[in-house]
Amino acid sequence: MFDDRSPIYRQIADRIKTEVLTEALKEDERVMSTNEYAAYYRINPATVAKAFQQLVDEGVLYKKRGIGMFVSPQAREVLRDRHRERFFTDVVDPMIDEALAIGVPLADVVRRIEGRDAR
Amino acid sequence: MRFPSRLLVANMFFAVLLWLAALAVTAAIAAAVAVFGDLDQSAWEKVPQIARWYALFTGVALIREFLPMYIAHGQTRREFGGHALVTALLFAPFLGVLFALGYLIERGVYALAGLPPVLGRGHLYADTLQFPVVVAEHTLQFAVWLAAGTFLGAAYYRWAGGGVLACLPVAAGLVLLAESTVGGDLRLPFANRFGLGLDLAWPAAVLAGTGVATVLAGLALTWPIIRDVPLRTTRA
Amino acid sequence: MKVEIDGLGLRYGETAALDGLTCTLDGGKIYGLLGRNGSGKTSLMSVLAAFRRQTFGQVRVAGEPVFENRRVTRRISLITHTGETTDIGTAEDALYFAEWLRPDWDGELARSLMDAFGLAPKAKVKEMSTGQRSAMGAVIGLAGRAPLTMFDECHLGMDVPSRKIFYDALLADYMDHPRTIVLSSHLIDEVAPLFEEVLILDRGRLLLQEETPALLGRGTTVTGPADRVAAFTAGLTVLDERRLGPTVAAVVYGPLDDARRREAAGAGLELAPVPLQDLFVHLTADPAGAPAAAPAGAPAAEPSGEPR
């Protein structure tokens, strides 16, 4: 897991994850180097290296010694599974909380979802 | 130790510029005197009166400007001390030679204009064409002023104004002694008024030895002041 | 280059600028040296660069003492906040001597940095503005490529575009030629991302030394209803508390594990990271003028016990 207390970690990870999910980065494609990321974000390369290491541990990237970081063949799968797992806790539950807090009946919410599904 | 080439070159380059300026100014003054009055003396002879202050200034600048630069560039005080010593010992003769060349130029111009190359005061040399003697006398003169400059510069760098006041008598004594070995007429501020000129009736070898020893003493006195001097940085 | 500092003290007359400072820099990183005015940053760097000799204690760089030791001093560079150290001559002259005295000098880098900062080679150093002098210092410090390069507030006089140029150049050259770089600054949030490790000095001693991400992970702002914040922060080190009506925002110091984070979320509390600058302010604050007591769980003078 990324340390969500370090926003710069999250920025780098999120960018790479988004690129993988949208297939801007394809499987087995090389990711920009640590130094390129460091220069772009104006941050210490060690910070980037740690972010990369986390992505390796998560199975999103793999390392080819002396060449660089590459997108794992299963990266997209892994990320979609992870996002699916977290979808209810991260997206649906807060939405329900919000609806209850402002007095929107859950039935209305359900109707809305079903309406979107029918379209 | 490396040869202090760039330190010397930088100072020599500036000295040549000043020498050219001095030639131009002296020529202008001499021409004015010749036109409006009677030019019956060497004009170039007066130049060391100002040039020795430049030698003093060079000594001060060695400590005030170049010492911090050396340390900031990762050199030790000891390395700087070596470079400064070599620079001082080579720069003074360089000034001596430049000055002696000035006499030769003046000699040529005076000959063309039919003017007499008369010296206004006593020197080790009786004629401006005695090149080695001219160089020797003024080398010693410039060297002692330069040494006094490093001494006072170091005192100022380390202890500010109080240090200069405390060291001034020593520096003045060195200058007085060395100047007295090469000529009786000091033309120092206040010195003549208080009859401070030393009339040394010593053998030539003793005079020369005393002069050289005085210069070395001035440079040697500088070392204990700078050997562990802190670099000035404003504290944040 | 490895830097070992052991019980280091520096006195100016009666004033103790450094008072028994002990720490070790493993080298090969960009270090941030932080501290309030008078905490001893400049004094520490002055001793490390052999600008002055310490009053007591020891400094070793690459295993050797520094003062008047040419084997190590020539591999150390300190650029002070006044930028270039000499007043004589032009920018070109300054480079002429730097090139001659610095064993690892890179003239090409110096020229490209001069261009980037818009410094004219013929400009007289004495007539330069504060910003230009700072830029000149940055050029000399970076192009000197000293294995231990220190910048003491050297970018403070620069305007924003110049500072960005400096940060970019520093990072790029550090990545091309890895070396030990120490940067002191008051513009903490601006430079914090550059640091791999942070040292905070306080009253001439080391308050803490920590890798930047780990240090950032130690500060959390807990925001929510006063009673719930109080219940959650009981037993934690609270560095600061601000109240707005029924809502309290407390800055706590120390890592929060996932269980505690879930607990906070369950209690309807909002957790947010604390920027390094705020963390610094809280850690070095001393409202009563008493010595800054390092918070419990935070390192006091001895950083070695800190988890990495």
Summarize the structure.
The complex is a heterotrimer of chains A (119), B (236) and C (308). Chain A is built from 5 helices and 2 strands, in the order H-H-H-E-E-H-H.
Throw out a few tags for this protein.
heterotrimer; A: mainly alpha; 2 strands; 64% helix; B: mainly alpha; 5 helices; globular; DNA binding (chain A); transcription regulation (chain A); WH_DNA-bd_sf (chain A); WH-like_DNA-bd_sf (chain A); transcription (chain A)
Explain what this protein looks like in three dimensions.
Chain A has 119 residues and is mainly alpha-helical. Helices cover 64% and strands 7% of the residues of chain A. Chain A contains 5 helices and 2 strands; from the N terminus they run H-H-H-E-E-H-H. In chain A, strands 1-2 form a two-stranded antiparallel ribbon. In chain A, helix 1 crosses helix 3 and helix 2 crosses helix 3. Chain B has one domain. Helices cover 72% and strands 0% of the residues of chain B. Chain B is globular. The two termini of chain B are 35 Å apart. Chain C is an alpha/beta fold. Chain C folds into 2 domains: 209 residues, P-loop containing nucleotide triphosphate hydrolases (Rossmann fold, 3-Layer(aba) Sandwich), CATH 3.40.50.300; 57 residues, Alpha-Beta Plaits, CATH 3.30.70.240. In chain C, the strands form 3 sheets. Chain C has a 6-stranded mixed beta sheet with strand order 6-7-8-3-9-10, with helices on both faces. In chain C, helix 5 runs parallel beside helix 6. The longest helix of chain C is centred in the middle third of the chain and has 17 residues. The radius of gyration of chain C is 21 Å and the shape is globular. Chains in contact: A-C, B-C. Chain B: Keywords: Membrane, Transmembrane, Transmembrane helix. Chain C: This is ABC transporter. Chain C: GO terms for molecular function: ATP binding; ATP hydrolysis activity. Chain C: Keywords: ATP-binding, Nucleotide-binding, Transport.
